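User: For documentation purposes, I need each entry recorded in a consistent format: the amino acid sequence on its own, followed directly by the corresponding structure tokens. There are two entries in this batch. Please keep commentary to a minimum and don't merge the entries.

Assistant: Recorded as requested. Entry 1:
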Amino acid sequence: MAKTSSIEKNKRRRKLAKQYAPKRAALKALTKDQSASLEERFAAQLKLAELPRNSAPVRIRNRCEVSGRPRGFYRKLRMSRIALRELGNLGQVPGMVKSSW
């Protein structure tokens, strides 16, 4: 199990990213707009830099929903390889069968 503080920090980052997504998208579009003047684009870039760092989607870490583990993460199932194996052995993942040879 991961540290509770790490899991909570990631939750805060997800919340901030969702909250600032429209503002961040608008500012990024303005900075990439070639028809806007250089001053407008630079001002938009400065406003973008003033946004909280944790509101950037890049800072969100994929974590297992079951254990909070940050590594060995399967996006489709939203869990780590270890949690997937344990649940698969218990028969709680539909379509997953334990192999033995």
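Entry 2:
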Amino acid sequence: MARFKIIFDGEEQDEVFATEEEAEDYALYLCSCCRTGAETLHWSNPGDYDYDEDEFEDPEYEIVEED
């Protein structure tokens, strides 16, 4: 049975998923967390943490099949 892992922003995540769809959902959740974190940092100190929603790029991720 195939198992899937995520390489998120260059780092392999510990979580293992039974389907590729579950891994994709989790990767999208992580992207959402990055966006929310960037917004929160900007709200707390806009001078130090610039944030433009239109220019924000989600981190790259890859879903790989584990042996």
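Summary note for entry 2:
The chain has a mean pLDDT of 89.
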